[in-house]
Amino acid sequence: EGKVADALKALESATANTVFLVGSRFSMADIAIGVALSYIDFRYAHDWRSQYPALATWSETVLSRDSFINSLPPEE
Fold first, then answer.
1. What is the pLDDT of residue 1?
2. Which one of 3, 8, 24, 48 is separated from 38 by 20 to 30 angstroms, measured CA to CA?
């Protein structure tokens, strides 16, 4: 399947029934994976969300944080 698919599969199980990837607080792990998922959407647009619903739910929560929204590049 490839390295990206392997990573998404691992993250699917890591994000099931959790708010944060490590511990009980937002951390660099959440930032790194949130950025990586945004990059996948930008660079390799495909419907990963339907294959990995727990990861999709997790990403919606993380990517809707003000810190992520405010760091997006301006739309042209």
1. 62
2. 24
User: Could you tell me if 21 and 27 are in contact, meaning their C-beta atoms sit under 8 angstroms apart?
Assistant: yes
The residue type at 37: L
CA dihedral 46, 15, 18, 71 (to 10 degrees): -50
pLDDT at 52 over 80: yes
For 16-49, b where at least 16 C-beta lie within 10 A, e where not — what string?
eeeeebeeeebeeebbebbeebbebeeeeeeebe
The answer on pLDDT for 50 being more than 90 is yes
Residue in the block written with tokens 């792990």? 29
The phi and psi torsions of 62 (rounded to 5 degrees) equal: -70, -45
Contact 54/11 with Cβ under 8 angstroms? no
